[in-house]
């Protein structure tokens, strides 16, 4: 599937979900994943907006839907239901016009700090991956990972489902903001995640799209797998207590040729982006 998708050029993914849910009433501090059960219509509206804008792959509202991250908000059965509902919602929105790659985010705990053990993490990601695959996801995206060890555990759980697996790290640390929180370079991450068996290697969040070109080149230099890039709409700024991103959709889309030239084959956006950004990417891609 992956090679068929990228054979004709860049594949557009989606943009941010959290801010889109907030625009539809999600309160600060509220867990958006639970909306899969309580407000499925609003979640579906986000997914459909991305499909309408031109996304060929959309994610699911399941970024925090693992047992550890939801420990204070949902029991085991409810965790599974949240994941299944997330896939079902995105599938309804896609309606055959886009593929659904389900999101698997970090646990929120640090292995290196001894906050949990490997066995707990393995069981947690296996539980989530099985629920997502069982609900009919076309692929799985392990994303926004800061710890390569946790990422590899999540990738192993995802691969066990037999689905295509995307593995993405967040690079926003170090002097040049081109390392993970644990100091891992894009080249090392790409090599490790390729060896772990991921079908697509990438980066999301953390940095603006300008810096993503450099990260993309580094990833592509260390793997033959297609590269997935979903950067933020510039770097965040705090203005009057609100986080804003100043880059507009047209300027964001202007980086598409550079990203493609750097090796990106799956391109979308993260924090600060929305369906207008995907539409701008679609229009830019059509004019290439």
Note down, in words, how this protein is organized.
By secondary structure, the chain is an alpha/beta fold. It has one domain (2-286): Homocysteine-binding-like domain (TIM Barrel), CATH 3.20.20.330. Helix content is 43%, strand content 16%. It contains 12 helices and 10 strands. The strands form 2 sheets. An 8-stranded parallel β-sheet has the order 1-10-7-6-5-4-3-2. Strands 8-9 form a two-stranded antiparallel sheet. Helix 6 links the parallel strand 3 (99-104) and strand 4. The model has no long low-confidence stretch (mean pLDDT 95).
| CATH top level label | Alpha Beta
What distance lies between the first and last C-alpha atoms, to the nearest angstrom?
24 Å
Indicate the overall shape. Answer: globular
Q: Give the C-alpha Rg.
A: 17 Å
Q: Regions with pLDDT < 50 over 5+ consecutive residues?
A: none
Helix content: 40-55%
Lateral strand order in the biggest sheet: 1-10-7-6-5-4-3-2
List the helices and strands and how they pair.
Elements: H1 2-6, E1 11-12, H2 18-23, H3 35-38, H4 40-53, E2 57-58, H5 76-94, E3 99-104, H6 118-134, E4 139-145, H7 148-159, E5 165-169, H8 186-196, E6 200-208, H9 209-221, E7 227-232, E8 237-239, E9 242-244, H10 249-253, H11 256-262, E10 264-267, H12 275-286
Parallel strand pairs: 1-10, 2-3, 3-4, 4-5, 5-6, 6-7, 7-10
Antiparallel strand pairs: 8-9
Helix pairs in contact: 4-5, 4-12, 5-6, 6-7, 7-8, 8-9
In summary, what is this structure?
The chain has 288 residues and is an alpha/beta fold. Helix content is 43%, strand content 16%.
